Amino acid sequence: MEVFPQITQKPKILVIDDTPYIRELLSEILHEQDYEIRLAPNGALGLLAAENEFPDLIILDIDMPDMDGYEVCQRLKSYQSLKKIPVIFISAINDTQKIVKAFESGGVDYITKPFHFEEVLARVDTHLTLRRLQMEIERHNYHLEELVQEKMREISASHMSTILALAKLAESRDDDTGKHIERVQTHCKFFSIRLKDHPRFAAVVDDAFIENIYHAAPLHDIGKVGIPDEILLKPDKLTPYEFEIMKTHTTIGAQTLEVVSKEYPKNDFINMGITIARSHHENWDGTGYPDGLERDEIPLEARIMSIVDAYDALRSKRPYKNAFPHEETIQIIIESSGTSYSPEIVDEFIRIEGEIDEIYQTIQE
Length: 365
Hints:
It contains 15 helices and five strands. It is an alpha/beta fold. The protein folds into two domains: 12-144, Response regulator (Rossmann fold); 172-362, Hypothetical protein af1432. The chain has a five-stranded parallel sheet, with helices on both faces. Strand 4, helix 4 and strand 5 (109-112) form a beta-alpha-beta unit. Helix 11 (268-279) packs across helix 12 (300-315) and helix 12 (300-315) crosses helix 13. The longest helix is centred in the middle third of the chain and has 55 residues, at 117-171.
């Protein structure tokens, strides 16, 4: 949690001035107002004093040797920890351009020497009050932002849980364990993490991509809700007509999610879900469905889902087939490189086949 500075009951004021008389005079009048005063005879020592113990306000002379007040102020404003500390310039210079330069350097006020005690005290009090109010607003906004973010996380988690439940409901029609969804989620995330370091895919696969594909993966077959049981659960090979109906689960799923996307067009997770649902049966050589995409026309997330989904389908027992062992599944995938799957994707998948098998064994039905 971010820690915000606070102006204490006894505000700290740093006076940076090369004239001993002015330093002592300011120290005397400010002490009488119960301010805690520190004095610095030049810019370098003033910067060091400010870094060692943050003041609540700085009174800064302009005409000093080695480093003038303008440069001191600019350096103060370049430090993240010091840039919000109010700086009041105090100088014998009464030139309009010099005064403007003081404000351009980051000063909040300008007092001309010789000065009146009352004027100095009034301006110091005003800027300490403004600084205190500013910090209160910052603190309030930060905590408000925390509350908003927490509420957004709660809403997001609720939405994710609802969508995952709907995806599992769709999946339960031909896989009543729901473990297929958990495995493809985990496989997609793990595989994407590996692809993040691949020079071919590093520009696409970042942390947001990995997070989104993990949450979007369960949506890949959500369109199965629109496929009749006699086709979805048929224990024998589908007829060409039945297969055409089965293929529509890609467009049904995408269209269903597009309704959600119209309400939340900037939701990257939903948009990735649409892409995966529609395109995870596209083939590298252009023979897939529903759009006949080929090669790099197929979005990367769909290519990842394609190989992950195929691996899990081959490993799993279904009414129409027995489960294949890991080694045979990997061989089938290798033989499909360049036709069903991108050769680069297959190569990377084979490199982590041991971990893929371990994940499958861990999340068993």
